[in-house]
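Bit of a strange request maybe. I'm writing a small parser for structure token strings and I need a real example to test against, not something I typed by hand. Could someone generate the tokens for this chain?
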Amino acid sequence: MAGNNLLTSSIIVKRALAVLSERVQVLGMVNRQYDTQFGYKGGAKAGDTVSVRVPQRGIVRKGRIMDLQAQIDQTIPIKIDQYYGMDTGATSAEMAMQIDDYQEQFIDSKIGDLLANVEADFINKVTPLVPATVGDYGLFDDAKTVLTAKAYLDGQLAPMNSRNLLVNTFSQVDVVDALKGLFNAQDKIGEQYKTGKMLSNTLGFDWYQSNLTSTLTRGTANGAYTTNAAGQTGSTLAVITGTGTILKGDTFTIAGVFDIHPQTKQPTTSLKQFTVTADHPGGAGNLSISPAIIATGSERNVSNAPGATQLLVVKGASGVKYAQNVAFSKDAFYFVTADLPNPPKSYGVDSASATYQGITLRFMQGFNQVNDEYISRFDIVWGGGLLRPELAVRIPATVTGI
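Reply from user aminoacidic:
Good idea to test on real output. This should exercise your parser:
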């Protein structure tokens, strides 16, 4: 155990969490709160399933007579079971260093690597779940695509003050070069030199570049897939005819099924977009899709249920790999962490946890007397997913690369 003249776990974990918080990028842009009304006021534990609340849409009465609307709490269950850690060892002499020296040697790089892995896996988990895409599935090199993404979020009533555009590193080359005339204000150039952030408040978004963005390969589905029966609803869609794979993350539309305005429930002129949530090997069968098709009620999200033998159009070109740029509002995604237990010191370990802005990190250290070495570990347990799919839109793009 660490003595009074050595760095304690409490000191180390607070400094490590400060480093993590400074470097967090994507996780700093998403919802990080779960609902404490479901029995988690003391903090969720590893393996728990917690609930994230989804705001309920209202039903507008037209007429004099009241139509009292029941308050139905809609929640998304999320299991906190992604266990990530980083392990290290330090000698007694190293544990006697000042915290700044210890941070440079044992915290900065290790926490950076831990965070990069958490963010990368979070991004790869949530990106294929975003149903809507915009753009021509070519290079991301025009303002119209950005404005179309903005128009999509406008139509979905996404808040104006928390919109972000996460751009693939190589897509950044294409779009910044194409739009460099828009990026030449001195204050915006200054922003580009800050870590990760390209610029703010441009074409409706705060822009960030990342080399952690997802890359998805479009399946080989041909253009002959159709619905198997009329009136299908829910998160499974039966299809017939057609050949070729439809892969997780592939986006498609159904002929005759239109999106609706989220408040008025009136059909728009745009076909509703869906994403496939599990690989389909090809041919007749059932597609797992998101969002679920809801054709009636206050949560209705389509103009109508699909008819029989309605054509599916899968976006993109067969077998092409696309970088996934994502425009989104904060509540599109959620990220939650667990409070890990700290063993009593009678177990021969010094352990401490710290929480900042919804992210909990634990540090634990014991002593190996054979090697005169403190063995240490950082731990974070998390869960994440899609909270409000309508508040995000993908911009798939081919990239030149190096």
